[in-house]
Design brief:
heterodimer; A: mainly alpha; MetI-like fold; 2 domains; B: 14 helices; globular
Chain lengths: 277, 320
């Protein structure tokens, strides 16, 4: 009897700890939103004011008026959508080729592609910059988008999924006289919707957030992305933290919405890539 | 349409190594040509992605290795320097410091992630009220933009920010987190862990949920306690997931330098100048492209080493 009640108390304690931990994880967001609604004098005031007495909603328009944030927002979205679209197409096409066809050198192809996972842009920054410069793509949307158009991660994720599709599906379509590209387009793609959704969400999230690459190759104001704009904002209005937090909240909202709407796809993407192999 | 026999044969077709051709039936000439055509189709499907990766991964990597043997400032043409860049790095105390900082940062972020993420996944896998909402709360940092993270934490670590405010209320006193040599790097590590743990606990959680419940039931009937169930069922079955987490977390921490760039500019006194940041600075602030390329090659070598170790372990794993 005492063993059972002790176990129950332990269970409650662990649950409480889990909830407290969640609070701790969320604290930075809460503080960010709270500070974005304070006056400059209030942000560093002690004792800590968790909730501002008079919310300063005007901080938002003031902060956003300091920089062409709509332009940055547009650029980030454009880059993210273009990179996502090309990844969805090229990665699923390559994954289909790797998963359902046999040709000499297929395994080495796949291995070579996978090996690029350890060569992310951050590690190849200098030479990629030089290649893009040789191609004359500095300071252009093409330069922001094309180097990111294929990510081996997408090929890996799609291949995992396509391998599990039954071959009979493809053979039946082939017997019906469907063209090879038609099989990919009309049979394979509709059947991998869950994997495509997962890849779409992960890719959009990652690429909306591009910062380093635009920092290097987009010197024109009209090409800057939202994260880059935020970083510049921080550099130029160092003291006005309340406005910076307001701008940061605006930058966070699309991500949070995306995450809440597509939570399943997010988790599936992370799972698909991690679980198997 | 699909007979079970069909499945087995076509399965063999899809997974057989390409070196050993398997004919489905005694081949008539017509079939052979279709098979040959299909080979080309498969290759053509792979080709665009392959060309892209060749142009933006393999060619740059080869170029970096080549460039590391030259002096190049982007303006005047490159001049051959032999191993001069590597010697310059070897003699540059800042490079040694940066290598040390990178190792410390990578291990200091990745190792806590392995354990905390597993712990969190175990907590979130328990049956409890409101589990969905609690999971969501923990997973939200995954969605945070890296610059937003950097700005918010810079604000939290501000000499008069929330972290010091809480310390002061507990009468501990304030610390200049980001401007003192002893605390700057650990402060950045803490952010890395805060951001990485949710991501990897999603991976662990998926691994945990893939373990059949019957295993636990059977072992409970046989009298196994919670620790024994964890030790002899959960841990062994999670091994592939763990390997994945270990390598990805190491690679992620190794390449990361947004926070040093935005929050500390590598300071104070270079204590947060991780290797990718050193490369970025050498190349794009001092325009010593050759030396930056040489440092990149060192970074490739490290990434390659980590990955190689993982593939070795994975192969042993699958061979068992």
């Amino acid at each position: 009897m005492t063993g059972r009640s002790a176990r129950r108390i332990l269970g409650w304690a662990v649950s409480l700890l889990t909830i407290a931990g969640a609070g701790l994880v969320l604290l930075p967001y809460f503080w960010m939103v709270s500070s974005s609604l304070k006056t400059q004098d209030e942000i560093f005031r002690l004792p800590i004011e968790w909730i501002p007495r008079a919310p300063q909603w005007a901080n938002y328009p003031t902060a956003l008026a300091r920089f062409p944030f709509e332009k940055y927002f547009f650029n980030s979205t454009l880059v993210a959508v273009a990179v996502m679209a090309s990844n969805l197409f090229l990665c699923s096409l390559a994954a289909y080729g790797l998963a359902k066809f046999r040709f000499p050198g297929r395994e080495s192809c796949f291995r070579a592609m996978l090996s690029t996972l350890m060569l992310p842009l951050e590690i190849l920054l200098v030479p990629t910059f030089l290649v893009v410069r040789q191609l004359g793509l500095l300071d252009s949307y093409a330069g922001l988008i094309i180097p990111l158009a294929v990510d081996a991660f997408g090929i890996f994720l799609m291949r995992q999924y396509i391998m599990d599709l039954p071959d009979s599906l493809i053979e039946a379509a082939r017997l019906d006289g469907c063209s090879e590209f038609g099989i990919y387009w009309r049979i394979i793609l509709p059947n991998c919707r869950p994997a495509l959704a997962a890849l779409a969400v992960l890719s959009f999230r990652e690429n909306w957030d591009q910062f380093l690459w635009p920092l290097l190759i987009a010197s024109k104001e009209s090409l800057k992305t939202f994260p880059l704009g935020l970083a510049l904002f921080e550099g130029s209005f160092n003291a006005s933290y309340h406005e910076m937090m307001a701008a940061a909240v605006v930058g966070m909202v699309p991500m949070i919405l995306l995450f809440l709407l597509f939570q399943r796809a997010f988790v599936r993407g992370i799972t698909l890539s991690g679980l198997k192999e | 349409m699909a007979k079970p026999g069909d499945e087995a044969v076509s399965d063999g077709l899809a997974s057989a190594p390409p070196a050993i051709p398997q004919r489905r039936t005694a081949a008539r000439p017509r079939h052979l040509s279709i098979e040959q055509r299909l080979r080309w189709v498969g290759f053509l499907f792979v080709l665009p992605a392959l060309l892209h990766l060749a142009l933006f991964k393999f060619y740059p990597m080869a170029q970096a290795l080549l460039l590391s043997l030259f002096r190049y400032d982007l303006l005047s043409p490159p001049r051959f320097a032999g191993l001069g860049n590597y010697r310059a790095l070897y003699e540059n105390p800042l490079f040694h410091q940066s290598l040390g900082v990178s190792v410390k940062y990578t291990l200091g972020v990745a190792i806590p992630e392995w354990f905390l993420a597993l712990g969190l996944a175990l907590l979130l896998n328990r049956a409890m009220a409101g589990r969905g909402v609690i999971r969501l709360a923990y997973f939200l940092p995954i969605a945070m933009s890296q610059i937003v993270v950097a700005l918010v934490w810079k604000f939290l670590y501000h000499p008069h920010g929330l972290v010091n405010g809480l310390l002061e209320m507990a009468s501990i006193g304030r610390i200049n987190w980001l401007s003192e040599e002893a605390t700057a790097l650990p402060a950045l590590m803490a952010i890395g862990v805060w951001r990485g743990v949710p991501l990897f606990s999603v991976v662990y959680l998926a691994g945990l949920q893939a373990i059949p419940g019957e295993y636990y039931e059977a072992s409970t009937i046989d009298g196994a306690g919670p620790w024994q169930r964890f030790r002899y069922i959960t841990l062994p079955l999670l091994r592939p997931t763990m390997l994945f987490v270990i390598v990805v977390s190491l690679l992620m921490a190794m390449k990361f330098f947004t926070n040093p760039l935005v929050m500390t500019e590598g300071g104070p006194n270079g204590t947060t100048r991780v290797l990718p940041y050193f490369i970025y600075e050498t190349g794009f602030a001092f325009f010593r492209m050759g030396e930056a390329a040489a440092a990149s090659s060192v970074l490739f070598a490290l990434a390659f080493l980590f990955t190689l170790v993982q593939f070795r372990m994975l192969r042993r794993e699958t061979a068992e």
